[in-house]
Amino acid sequence: MIAKRIFFVSLWLSAVLTASAQQAFTLKHALEVSKANNPFLKSAALNIPIAKADIVTAGLRPNPVLNNQTLFLANSSNFAPDTKVYNPKNRQVWWQLTKQFQMSHQREYKIEVAEKNAAVAGNAYTDAERNVLLDAGTRWLDAWLSSVNLELINEAKSNIDTLVQANEIRLKNQVISLSEFTRTQLLSDQYLLQQKSATQAYLTALKNLVLVTGMKDTMAIDTSDPVISMAFIDKADSLIQLSFQHRGDVLAAIGSIDAAKSNIRLQKAFSKPVPELGFIWNPQNTVPYFGVFGTIELPFFSRNQGEIRKSKVVLQQTEQSLYALQQQVRTEVQTSYDAYKLSSETVNKYTLILQRAEQVLQSVKYAYTRGGTTIIDFLDAQRTWFDTQKNYYDAVYTYRKNYLQLLYVTGLINQL
What we know:
Blueprint: H1 2-19, E1 24-25, H2 27-37, H3 39-45, H4 47-59, E2 65-72, E3 91-100, H5 106-172, H6 178-213, E4 220-221, H7 236-246, H8 248-270, E5 276-281, E6 290-295, H9 305-369, H10 375-410
Parallel strand pairs: 1-4
Antiparallel strand pairs: 2-3, 3-5, 5-6
């Protein structure tokens, strides 16, 4: 009965996990796939060509303007003899071709502002990529933790099921009591329920990982991936300076300051009048006239004062934003570095505890099967082993997550 039950449960788990394990992804591989296929990142990437299109617009010159005015005699008594209304002797035609000429480096400054805004868009995309990679990495770690928890429960249940089979024989031989057999059976049933929940949690974590990586098929993770590929031996101060050089949001803030300075020069250039010059061809009653045309705004009232003042305030705002962001980066790097160091020490300590818990379980199990100790001692050792294993994996998860967070706050995650 128990053997058949174990067989069907194992068969069910094998089918579920095999269906979801078409391809095993390491953390680095998952990040690479997310960088290429994440649907939200693809949308953010389009901001770059949009910004570059503004460079084309800024470089365009004003189109020439063609103007025509045609006048006819209104009184027929004034018509030339034997002529009609459309006769050249009864009309005056005005053809005017003009063009605006951008002075004071207006076109040059417009291109400069557009180019710097495009650079800001590129850095903003880098920061969007940084956020997506953190999300993908976190989803991968969630799937990893769900996987190892499932493996842990499978191992624990397998151990208990073996003991249940042995106790079933011992109960028939009246070596143990029914109560003792029931307690081991109850623990096996509890592991079965946890097994189903852990399987569902693992499949859900895989679906979340598929979403963030932009994959169309189901996937699995490589649980043997060591994850930690970069050792942080530098102090927090060095990592802070490194963050200023690699983080997309910091680079975007610096670029925004440059763009704001260029915009001030552009708005000041717009305060200068733009002349419009051209030529006139004016046949009047078959008498041709030729002339030139010129117009220029007289800056008595409007000299673009509002936009100039606004551009200066925008510069102050971007400088303040950069300062606030730098303070935020310092705090994030320091706290992430401290958490990373602490979690590293925690994993090392749990490794030793894990070995002792394994030794205790094997010793107590050996003694129990030979009648040297009680079921209470064995169940206590089993729970201690299980809790220690789970706490160890939780500690490894926290360590790897802090490692990923440190890569994120320093901007190095984009380089994985």
